[in-house]
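Good morning C.,

I know you're traveling, so I'll keep this short. The sequence:
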Amino acid sequence: MAETNLKDRLREGLNAARRQRDRDRTRLLSTVLADIRNKEIDVRHELDDDEVIEVLSRCVKQRNEAAEQMASRPERAEKERAEAEILKGYMPAQLEEEEIRELIARAIEAGADNIGAVMGSVVPLTKGRAEGREVNRIARKELEMRRTGS
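The tokens, ready to paste straight into the viewer:
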């Protein structure tokens, strides 16, 4: 049997949420599938798993940012964080900090000597598997350590 793609897994999750009468999860997955469909219309082709992961990553990022902005409304912020966690469940496993550090070290050894060059070579390798700001934080730390010789 062929392995199901990510979009099909999202649809299956939506159908399961409907059967369980889970309104919040149904609304969340419907919204994400609509975002995917809108992206398909924009690019005029069906999205592959990597492109679906990009859409999911953007959705997770939006929910995390919304949670940060809603500090005065903790119940709403928690709902946003919970939605982000649900979506992360559909994404590939996230890279550990040590794995990110290794990718950054390889980029630096290959000649990347500034944050732009490091990010330019590492981000495509971590897409959907690590947040950009986390990669940036680690890269800055590694570059600084190499400059100071620590």
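Safe travels,
E.
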